[in-house]
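Q: Structure tokens for this one, please.
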Amino acid sequence: MKNITFYRRFEADILAGRKTITLRDKSDADYAPGDKVSVARYEDNQFFCHIVVNSVTPVLYEHLDDTHAQQENMTLDELKAVIAEIYPGITELYKIEFTLQ
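A: Here is the predicted structure, written as tokens:
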């Protein structure tokens, strides 16, 4: 089983089904539809759920829109700020869409 981590601040949204995608750089996007993934918090590596990957698609930072923001359970401005903080200067991301298992 593959693993993925999320910042603690996203745990409740993932567990409630409000966050249904994650945007990652190429080095952290080695997933395929159907992958079952063990999810842990980034800060302490504490497991909190399993997800199933539905799709992995490339997306340009400049093409992020309100749909991506809704899937991340935040505003578009918040989403762009978080991405810029985590991946300064990035132009190409990968959208990993998932559901709770």
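A few notes: The CA atoms of residues 38 and 50 lie 5 Å apart. The mean pLDDT is 97.
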